[in-house]
Design a protein that fits this description.
The complex is a heterodimer of chains A (130) and B (372). Chain A is α+β, with helices and mostly antiparallel strands. Chain A is 24% helix and 34% strand. The radius of gyration of chain A is 14 Å and the shape is globular. The mean pLDDT of chain A is 95. Chain B has three domains: 139 residues, Probable tRNA modification gtpase trme, domain 1 (Gyrase A, domain 2), CATH 3.30.1360; 84 residues, 2-Layer Sandwich (Alpha-Beta Plaits); 85 residues, Elongation Factor Tu (Ef-tu), domain 3 (Beta Barrel). Chain B has eight helices and 19 strands. A six-stranded mixed sheet of chain B has the order 10-11-12-9-3-13. A six-stranded antiparallel barrel of chain B has the order 14-17-16-15-18-19. The radius of gyration of chain B is 21 Å and the shape is globular. The termini of chain B are far apart. The chains are: A alpha+beta (130), B alpha+beta (372). At the A-B interface, helix 1, strand 4, strand 6 and strand 7 of A face helix 7 of B.
């Protein structure tokens, strides 16, 4: 369920690396926890973030949650389709429901993120504690 | 994404196990572990607007008033005129402080001249009971029956047909805000034509231990109607579209009925009641702020507690959500009276960003008139 080629954060974002560009989204677990997403607030192209910065918000009917960048870099593309139809993030969180693409400042941060397997056991642990 | 809040030791209704079985997502609501949704808030909302939804609202409290002094006690404790209620009728009312502000909003049911029931908000049960008991005057007994009763709401255009099929008699002839005892699956229940969704519907009050059997039966029998179990998430979007106030959000002990646009629940001519003097003063002086409905002009969802700025001073958002029916953000705000006119534009601080909003006519949603 969590694709093997992605890297994951404890705050439930993922990044898919393609050369020096990373596509960023939220995980299937995150979208399920949020419920139906009705609103996305995403940054403009050109915005620069450090890893761990808040880059936007995702809102379900009930709640608002902050989004944090897994890596440092500059925003090069925003998923306008997802902004227009936020439900796409529920339907396909690892695919068409991506949020932004960033040109990475460094390739050294990705290694610090969780693998799919590590993330799966992290989620399991988090669910147990609740 | 930020982490969800953790649950602590919470109260549960008699339907808790069934909620788990139905795959509900449970949250802390006023100290109760309640289903916020089963399949999804948007779907459940739509089910109620178009078909029928079934809610567990057993967390709500029931206070019982009995004795020859019950009517006089309620006339003193609540601003609406209980002398206008006949047996089998209920109305929307409140407990008010001596400042005329809300202790709670509630429904008053007249079973008989010496037997009444009040349905109050879950988080306020101990406060309301104490409030009523210590101010109830003579020849009246006030009891808290909240733990004994479950409350199931069946709401939507197909609610009447569904309840008619499971109950021993058809409740369709009940007027709005009327109720009577009806047997369901052999169990005595109190069925009232009331609700908190803006749709036609019923609330069924019954012994807690019978609730699961009847909830299951309603779901099963309602399957052909497209009935869905619905959580508090949909209940909130439904009530907000219908502009029904939520205690703790839109009204509390700083807000009066005049300010909340609930003046119709106050009958000044009926005689003395708690809060009357303050309300009389405020009526003479005019209210400084008003609860209004708004829509967003700019993008964004304004939520409870977000600051509002108007040409007449500061206000605050009391409720805000994405309206599933209208497909856009809506909300309620307490604004300075000068800014409360329909069409007035103002700004809301959405987490540091100024977003424009506009006062609009309410309710946001009104159900289509049907032949009854």
């Amino acid at each position: 369920m969590n694709p093997e080629d992605l890297h994951y954060t404890p705050s439930h974002e993922w990044v898919r690396i393609d050369g020096d560009v990373g596509a960023i989204g939220i995980t299937d677990y995150a979208q399920k926890e949020l419920g139906e997403i009705v609103y996305l607030e995403l940054p403009e192209v050109g915005h620069v973030f450090n890893a761990g910065d808040e880059f936007g918000t995702v809102e379900s009917v009930k709640a608002v949650s902050e989004l944090f960048t897994p890596v440092s870099g500059e925003v090069v593309e925003v998923n306008k389709g997802a902004v227009a139809e936020p439900g796409i993030v529920n339907d396909d969180p690892f695919g068409d429901g991506w949020l932004i693409k960033m040109k990475l400042t460094t390739d050294e941060e990705v290694g610090k993120l969780m693998t799919a397997e590590q993330y799966a056991s992290y989620v399991q642990q988090e669910e147990k504690e609740r | 994404m930020s982490a969800p809040a953790r649950a602590t030791a919470l109260k549960r209704t008699s339907l808790y196990d069934l909620h788990r079985e139905l795959g509900a997502k449970l949250i802390d609501f006023g100290g109760w572990e309640m289903p916020v949704q089963y399949s999804g808030i948007l779907q459940e909302h739509r089910a109620v607007r178009e078909r029928v939804g079934i809610f567990d609202v057993s967390h709500m409290g029931e206070l019982e008033f009995s004795g020859t002094g019950a009517l006089a006690a309620l006339q003193w404790l609540t601003p609406n005129d209980v002398s206008r209620l006949s047996d089998g009728r209920c109305h929307y009312s409140a407990f008010l402080t001596d400042r005329g502000t809300y202790v709670d909003d509630l429904l008053v049911y007249r079973k008989a001249e010496d037997s009444w029931m009040l349905v109050v908000n879950a988080a306020n049960i101990p406060k309301d009971f104490e409030w009523a008991r210590s101010r109830a005057r003579v020849n009246v007994q006030v009891g808290d029956a909240s733990d004994r009763y479950a409350l199931i709401a069946v709401q939507g255009p197909r609610a009447a047909a569904l309840v008619a099929r499971v109950a021993a008699e058809d409740p369709s002839d009940l007027d709005y805000y009327a109720f009577r005892e009806i047997s369901i699956l052999g169990e005595p229940t109190l069925v009232s034509r009331t609700g908190y969704t803006g749709e036609d519907g019923f609330e069924i009050c019954l012994a807690s231990e019978r609730a699961e059997k009847i909830f299951r039966r309603l779901l099963e029998e309602g399957r052909s109607d497209g009935a869905m179990p619905c959580g508090l998430g949909a209940r909130d979007t439904l009530r907000l579209e219908a502009k029904m106030a939520l205690y703790g959000n839109d009204i509390d002990d700083t807000v009066t009925p005049w300010e909340a646009d609930l003046g119709w629940t106050v009958k000044m001519k009926k005689g003395e009641f708690l809060g009357r003097d303050a309300l009389e003063r405020q009526k003479a002086e005019g209210v400084l702020r008003k609860l209004v409905g708004f829509e967003m002009v700019d993008r964004g969802i304004a939520r409870h507690g977000y600051p509002a700025r108007t040409a007449y001073g500061e206000g605050v958002v009391t409720s805000g959500t994405h309206s599933p029916t209208l497909g856009k953000p809506i909300g309620l705000a307490l604004l300075p009276a000068g800014a409360a006119g329909v069409g007035t534009e103002f700004e809301i601080d959405i987490r540091g960003r100024n977003a424009k909003a506009r006062v609009v006519e309410t309710p946001f949603y009104k159900r289509p008139k049907e032949a009854r």
